[in-house]
């Protein structure tokens, strides 16, 4: 669905689809240079990273493997609970693999902090993070994303994989959710 399809549910449009795809193309060129001759394993973090994963993987002119993890740190509210649970683990063995975690957003950083420690313990040759969106003021200092799409303000954002109560994931762009929707 388009940003215009959700009426006054958004107070602001942060990114339209074209901006997202252009930035993903730029990040893909960096990844191609960094992993020349390699076959990295892209680990998508369900459900939010579905759109980023699909677009990054298709943009890359490299062979890649795709795998998925489902973890949860949020309920249906707007705040991180700090509790990370594995809902679905990887199918792949990470031993000796060049792994890139693909995330839609680094908010508090709790999810990525926990995930990098967890995946690092499985013996990958390397482990990096691609996060399409980042809230810099809230990012935990021990999490370093090598590939970041956009730094965004500390607002409740939806679209392009990001949900509120499972809605808006299929929005083509990213916008700030109006308070009247979640209050
Ligand atoms: C969202 C998002 C990240 C995480 C970021 O996932 O996709 O995984 O929160 O927040 P943090 O940096 O504060 O930890 P969520 O748990 O909402 O699951 P979802 O991807 O299925 O929507």
Descriptive key words:
9 strands; alpha/beta; 183 residues; Rossmann fold; 4 helices; globular
Q: How much is the average pLDDT?
A: 93
Uncertain spans:
none
Question: Proportion of β residues?
Answer: 25-35%
- Can you write the helix and strand succession as a string? EHEHEEEHEEEEH
Rg calculated over all Cα atoms: 16 Å
Distance between the termini: 24 Å
- Briefly, what CATH class? Alpha Beta
Domain count: 1
Report the CATH architecture. 3-Layer(aba) Sandwich
CATH topology: Rossmann fold
How are strands sequenced across the largest beta sheet? 4-3-2-5-6-7
Q: Biggest sheet, in brief?
A: 6 strands, mixed
- Helix percent reads 10-25%
How does the helix and strand content classify structurally?
alpha/beta
Topology, number of strands = 9
Query: How many DSSP H or I helices?
Result: 4
What would you say this structure looks like, in words?
This protein is α/β, with parallel strands linked by helices and 183 residues long. The protein has a single domain (18-152), classed as Rossmann fold. The protein has helices spanning 17-34, 50-59, 110-120, 179-182; strands spanning 10-15, 41-46, 65-72, 85-88, 98-106, 126-134, 147-151, 157-158, 174-177. The chain has a six-stranded mixed beta sheet with strand order 4-3-2-5-6-7, with helices on both faces. Strands 1-9-8 form a three-stranded antiparallel beta sheet. Helix 1 (17-34) crosses helix 2. The longest helix has 18 residues, at 17-34. It is globular and about 50 Å long. Bound molecules: 1-O-pyrophosphono-5-O-phosphono-alpha-D-ribofuranose. 1-O-pyrophosphono-5-O-phosphono-alpha-D-ribofuranose binds next to strand 2, strand 5 and helix 3.
